[in-house]
Amino acid sequence: MSCAVPAAGASALPRGAAAEGGQQEYESLEQENTSLKREIGKLTDEMKHLSEVLKDHEKICPLLHCTMNFVTIPRPDALASCLPR
């Protein structure tokens, strides 16, 4: 019995194709990573903006300053008395 040993050139082609495929996948992942970082930046900016809006709202919200908020029994009629008319 003889063992067939592939020639050096025969195995280089699949290796080259695999390397090319790996390079394409790498570039695709890099683009996706850049896109995701951009999206994270936009979402972070939106979160900061909404946090500021919430902070400003909390200063003037009558429901947050109403003494009835400390009552544990839900009373819609009492809560309505906290709202401006």
TrEMBL record:
Region (Disordered): 1-33
GO molecular function: DNA-binding transcription factor activity, RNA polymerase II-specific; RNA polymerase II cis-regulatory region sequence-specific DNA binding
Positions with biased composition (Low complexity): 7-21
InterPro entries: AP-1
A GO cellular component entry from the record: nucleus
Protein's name in the database: Basic leucine zipper transcriptional factor ATF-like 3
Organism, as annotated: Hirundo rustica rustica
Lineage: Eukaryota, Metazoa, Chordata, Craniata, Vertebrata
